[in-house]
């Protein structure tokens, strides 16, 4: 049945359309439509195809045009930023920040006025990324595609990147392409490690001969460490100055606390290595730029061992009271962490607001964290003659000493800040979350002049606990390792972190503890050494799994998620102790091999060293674009001390190193 309402537009007559109120324009559209309908199906298809084709072409040319426009605007932004940079306007004027005077109570710390004060006098343009970011990564780290080594580092004898002319001089191409980003290559000598202007591979060959003839001069190795430090510092200075960490590949920085962590952590290393110019520049930054009056949350443990420890040791080495003043300031600002129901400190403190809190997901703190801040706070009390610091940390020591839940002196990994009791009991490790508890038992005993017998008792009992519960040997080469206990079952895995233990055991034996501690130290340092030499890069993984059954003839397996190396210090730390106490030159040689492997696989040509994601693949160690502050604070410092013939340089009878390698004095017996 006919129904005008339902009749479609095309079939309406002009009058009908007029009656329904359509306009003239609509008339025109109507006649077009009629013409369209009069075309054959083939004609209509052809026209539609042409229109679609033109539409696609239009879209394609639009996106490439906008790409160009974006490029132009990025460049002009970058140029604007560089101009601001070049005018030296980035640093925060710190003189504006009122310094906390001695005697101000924790409760008097005012919320910061930093946001206003930090602003430079001219508006800053947003900083463009130094290079285009790779697509964001998802999934567990081991599964993420990292940069290929070929993308950023040169291989031995690689053609095309380093050309050798007839005189043997190397000429580097100016750029290496990395997924569209341009990374500047430096002179050929920079692309490999350089010692006194010689290519490291050449030095290696010479060294092998020298080692045989016994003519190798120790000074070469000392200078190699200085050179490595300078190279790392060059990257930090160029791309991360005053920031927490260098990201050497993207040539920028990472921020953790926003307190110049790498710079502070590296101060005493520069002093010890004799790098006067670098030290002077860094000191200037501390004097003029460093302010702790900042509305930031910091981790109590990390800021104590790196910042407080770094400032205290630099004060002791240099005698410069600037560092003591800064140490007092940060130490005081960390104290709110101890205001908990149990007096076991919270993990985090806001050093500007004077408030503290546990992590968001728990009221637990980590046992290693609350028991490895004692050396620093005790020293702060001694220097300031203010007992509050020492009292706070020794209260923690006392409570942990008395606590139930240990197993033969071994401690669980967590402690609750409300109840003051161990939680998640049943898991025991000498690795992450417990490691430095053991280290600080011995070192506090030494720091205090061997008088605090409870510390010593706890330490000796714990080492017995290690022997009884955690010590095992691999079936193939009988490598001794320290496994982990989980609800009574031994897991034959060992963190690289555990490699601090041989050094600590040796230090104890040197101070009169049982001789079998030294025997164990010798066995364990061999295992730590094997964790390096059995890897294709010559660098240890973060975690090693040891074979108790001889099923594949190997001692060590590495799980994909554990293949990374963060430039950690523990093995070279122990090598340093072992060499000092035994004078066995093999420990120096092992350290030298490690330095060379760092140079080969983690050194970034434009400055800095990077952690890597895969120690099993020398062709693609998967650089992670991060230089941890402990590489400068610990790794290079211990290597330098290992190679130095001056055993009075930080004598182990006069200093104890905190867990971040900052030497603090052993207290004179009168105090
Ligand atoms: C350092 O910050 C300290 O040595 C800490 O005790 C453990 N981890 C890192 C280095 O690996």
Quick take:
Its EC number is 3.2.1.-. The protein is mainly α.
Report on the structure:
The chain is mostly helical and 671 residues long. Helices cover 46% and strands 10% of the residues. It contains 22 helices and 24 strands. The strands form ten sheets. It has a three-stranded antiparallel sheet with strand order 9-10-11. Strand 3 (175-178) and strand 4 form a beta hairpin. Helix 9 (261-273) runs parallel beside helix 22 (629-643) and helix 11 crosses helix 14 (374-384). It is globular, with a radius of gyration of 32 Å. The model is unreliable at 1-28 and 63-205 (pLDDT under 50). 1-deoxymannojirimycin binds at residues 436, 497, 568-569, 630, 659-660. Ca(2+) binds at residue 659. Pathway: Protein modification; protein glycosylation. The active site is at residues 302, 435, 542, 570. Keywords: Calcium, Disulfide bond, Endoplasmic reticulum, Glycosidase, Hydrolase, Membrane, Metal-binding, Signal-anchor, Transmembrane, Transmembrane helix. It comes from Danio rerio.
List the SSEs and their pairings.
Elements: H1 14-19, H2 24-38, H3 41-86, H4 114-118, H5 149-152, E1 162-164, E2 170-172, E3 175-178, E4 181-184, H6 188-191, E5 194-195, E6 198-199, H7 200-213, H8 218-239, E7 245-247, E8 252-254, H9 261-273, H10 276-288, E9 297-299, H11 300-318, H12 321-334, E10 348-350, E11 355-357, E12 364-366, H13 367-370, H14 374-384, H15 388-402, E13 414-416, E14 422-423, E15 427-428, H16 435-447, H17 453-469, E16 471-473, E17 480-482, E18 484-486, E19 489-491, E20 493-495, H18 501-510, H19 515-533, E21 543-546, E22 556-557, H20 570-582, H21 585-601, H22 629-643, E23 655-657, E24 663-665
Antiparallel strand pairs: 1-2, 3-4, 5-6, 7-8, 9-10, 10-11, 12-13, 13-14, 15-18, 16-17, 18-19, 20-21, 21-22, 23-24
Helix pairs in contact: 8-9, 8-22, 9-10, 9-11, 9-22, 11-12, 11-14, 14-15, 16-17, 18-19, 18-20, 19-20, 20-21, 20-22
Bound molecules: 1-deoxymannojirimycin.
1-deoxymannojirimycin (DMJ) binds near residues 497, 568, 569 and 630.
Organism: Danio rerio (Zebrafish)
EC number: 3.2.1.-
Membrane topology: Single-pass type II membrane protein
């Amino acid at each position: 049945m006919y129904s005008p309402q339902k009749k479609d537009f095309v079939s309406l007559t002009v009058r009908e359309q007029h009656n329904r109120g359509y306009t003239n324009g609509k008339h025109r559209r109507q006649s077009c439509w009629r013409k369209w309908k009069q075309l054959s199906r083939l004609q209509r298809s052809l026209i539609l195809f042409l229109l679609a084709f033109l539409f696609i072409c239009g879209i394609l040319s639009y996106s490439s045009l906008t790409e160009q426009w974006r490029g132009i605007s990025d460049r002009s932004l970058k140029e604007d930023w560089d101009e601001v940079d070049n005018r030296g306007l980035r640093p925060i004027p710190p003189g504006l920040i009122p310094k906390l005077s001695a005697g101000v109570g924790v409760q008097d710390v005012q919320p910061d006025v930093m946001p206003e004060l930090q602003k430079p006098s001219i508006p800053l343009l947003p900083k463009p990324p130094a290079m285009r970011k790779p697509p964001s990564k998802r999934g567990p780290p081991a599964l993420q595609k990292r940069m290929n080594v070929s993308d950023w580092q040169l291989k031995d004898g690689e053609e095309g990147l380093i050309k050798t002319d007839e005189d043997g001089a190397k000429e580097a191409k100016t750029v290496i392409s990395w997924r569209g980003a341009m990374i500047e290559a430096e002179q050929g000598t920079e692309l490999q490690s350089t010692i006194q202007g010689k290519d490291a591979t050449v030095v290696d060959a010479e060294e092998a001969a020298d080692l045989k003839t016994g003519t190798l001069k120790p000074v070469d190795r000392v200078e190699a460490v200085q050179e490595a430090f300078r190279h790392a510092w060059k990257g930090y200075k160029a791309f991360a100055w005053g920031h927490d960490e260098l990201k050497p590949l993207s040539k920028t920085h990472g921020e953790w606390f926003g307190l110049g962590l790498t710079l502070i952590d590296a101060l005493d290393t520069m002093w010890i290595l004799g790098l006067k110019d670098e030290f002077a520049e860094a000191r200037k930054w501390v004097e003029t730029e460093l302010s702790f009056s900042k509305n930031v949350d910091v981790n109590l443990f990390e800021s104590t061992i790196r910042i407080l420890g770094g400032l205290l040791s630099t004060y002791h080495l240099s005698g410069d009271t600037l560092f003591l003043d800064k140490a007092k300031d940060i130490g005081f600002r960390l104290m709110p962490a101890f205001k908990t129901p149990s007096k076991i400190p919270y993990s985090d403190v806001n050093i500007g607001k004077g408030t503290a809190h546990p992590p968001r997901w728990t009221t637990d703190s980590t046992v290693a964290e609350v028991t490895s801040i004692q050396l620093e706070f005790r020293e702060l009390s001694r220097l300031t003659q203010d007992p509050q610091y020492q009292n706070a940390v020794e209260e923690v020591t006392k409570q942990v000493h008395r606590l139930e839940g240990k197993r033969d002196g071994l401690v669980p990994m967590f402690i609750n800040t409300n109840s003051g009791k161990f939680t998640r009991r049943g898991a025991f490790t000498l690795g992450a979350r417990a490691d430095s508890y053991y280290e600080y038992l011995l070192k506090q005993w030494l720091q205090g002049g061997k008088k605090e017998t409870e510390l010593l008792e706890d330490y000796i009992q714990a080492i017995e606990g290690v022997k009884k519960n955690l010590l095992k040997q691999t079936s193939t080469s009988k490598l001794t390792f320290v496994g982990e206990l989980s609800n009574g079952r031994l897991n034959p895995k060992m963190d690289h972190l555990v490699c601090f233990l041989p050094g600590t055991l040796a230090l104890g034996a040197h101070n009169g503890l049982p001789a079998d501690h030294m025997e164990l130290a010798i066995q364990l340092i061999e295992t730590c050494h094997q964790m390096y030499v059995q890897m294709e890069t010559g660098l240890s993984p973060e975690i090693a799994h040891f074979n108790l059954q001889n099923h594949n003839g190997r001692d060590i397996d590495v799980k994909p998620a554990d293949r990374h190396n963060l430039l950690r210090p523990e093995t070279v730390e122990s090598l340093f102790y072992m060499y000092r106490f035994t004078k066995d030159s093999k420990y120096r040689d092992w350290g030298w091999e490690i330095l060379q492997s760092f140079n080969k696989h983690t050194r970034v040509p434009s400055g800095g060293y990077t952690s890597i994601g895969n120690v099993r693949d020398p062709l693609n160690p998967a650089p992670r674009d991060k230089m941890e502050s402990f590489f400068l604070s610990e790794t290079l410092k211990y290597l330098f001390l290992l190679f130095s013939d001056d055993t009075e340089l930080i004598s182990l009878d006069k200093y104890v190193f905190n867990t971040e390698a900052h030497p603090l004095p052993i207290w004179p017996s009168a105090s």
